[in-house]
Specification:
- Keywords: Signal.
- This protein is mostly beta strands and 322 residues long.
- It folds into 3 domains: 96 residues, conserved putative lor/sdh protein from methanococcus maripaludis s2 fold (Beta Barrel), CATH 2.40.420.20; 84 residues, Elongation Factor Tu (Ef-tu), domain 3 (Beta Barrel); 86 residues, OB fold (Dihydrolipoamide Acetyltransferase, E2P), CATH 2.40.50.
- It has 4 helices and 23 strands.
- Strand 13 and strand 14 form a beta hairpin.
- It is elongated.
Length: 322
């Protein structure tokens, strides 16, 4: 067997060693990427502290506007309604003639035109007058209509007796009493002051509620009947409480668990379970735990953060307002 030259053997050995020691740069880069952990971006948040506010436990219930004092204008005889016909919304005074009826005998004999004989004092024209001042709510008969004795011609209501009907659940009756002040929230945002006037001797069997009347105490705008409003009654006297803005308090889908995100250091926020109390439009009472004025609570950017989340604090809300 012929032996290979020494120089050729040295070249083969060097080539094999180079092939074993070389690595693909792209493969090496992929391996490094898999080993390095992904860095999550920090959430931008604003912070604030608990505030001491004056709160009142409020009972909010639905009510409906009503005119409890109504008068039905009825025909006192059979006959025909004479013009002019009144219109809905017309103001009427006590004793004012609203409808006029001509009896069928008068129309047949034309008694209303026999004015020469003073003995014919009965003309067959019957005025129907309003018993009290108010507003004409309905007009059920028009000029030319034939009506029977006792038939309703229209309906008037007394504006001075305008109020609201409030149905109070029996479980909340201890918080409502006659003479109590309240606030009436209209659908357009206006707020009227009122008081609980009287309790009615009726209750709804199906939903177990007690009915009260609410009377406005100040100037009342022109409101229609059957207008749905909200009535607020104070269940407790004003008291001092620790509160946070509503956006700072987070909750689960069932709203049985509540928590806030507290800043542990300059870049880490932790989840702190809380017990809430009265909830107002913009603030929520924090009953427990008791936070110090120096505890920094996330006010925005806190939604969806996990416990011990990495955050980046922007300018506080108070500083932005300034």
């Amino acid at each position: 067997m012929t032996s290979l030259p020494r120089r050729f053997l040295l070249l083969l050995t060097f080539a094999s060693l180079s092939a074993c020691g070389s690595k693909d740069p792209a493969a090496a880069g992929d391996a490094d990427a898999e080993e390095e952990p992904a860095v999550k971006p920090k959430a931008l948040v604003t912070i604030g502290t608990v505030q001491s506010d004056t709160l009142t436990d409020v009972l909010r219930l639905s009510a409906v506007s009503a005119f409890p004092a109504k008068d039905a204008l009825r025909a006192t005889t059979a006959g025909y309604v004479l013009p002019p016909s009144p219109v809905v919304g017309q103001q009427v005074r006590a004793g004012q003639t609203v409808f006029t009826i001509q009896t069928k005998e008068s129309r047949t004999l034309h008694l209303d035109k026999l004015t020469g004989d003073p003995r014919l004092r009965f003309s067959g024209i019957i005025p129907i007058k309003s018993a009290r001042s108010g507003v004409l709510a309905t007009v059920d008969k028009l000029a030319g209509d034939y009506v029977q004795d006792g038939e309703q011609l229209g309906l008037t209501y007394d504006r001075s007796r305008f109020g609201f009907i409030l149905d109070v659940p029996v479980t909340q009756l201890r918080y409502v009493h006659t003479g109590q002040s309240c606030r009436i929230l209209l659908p357009d945002g206006r707020v009227l002051t009122g008081r609980v006037a009287e309790v009615l001797a009726t209750a709804d069997v199906s939903i177990q509620t007690q009915r009260y009347t609410i009377r406005p105490t100040g100037q009342v705008p022109d409101l229609p009947e059957n207008l749905a409003v909200q009535v607020e009654l104070d269940r407790t006297a004003p008291r001092q409480a620790s509160t946070l803005p509503r956006g700072a308090v987070l909750t689960d889908e069932t709203q049985t668990e509540f928590w806030v995100m507290k800043l542990l250091n300059d870049s880490t926020a932790v989840k702190v379970p809380v017990t809430v109390g009265a909830q107002e439009k913009d603030h929520i009472e924090i009953k427990a735990p008791r936070f110090s004025p120096h505890d920094r609570i996330l006010l925005s950017g806190n939604f969806g953060l996990d416990d011990t989340a990495a955050v980046k604090v922007t300018r506080p809300v108070a500083a932005e307002k300034e």
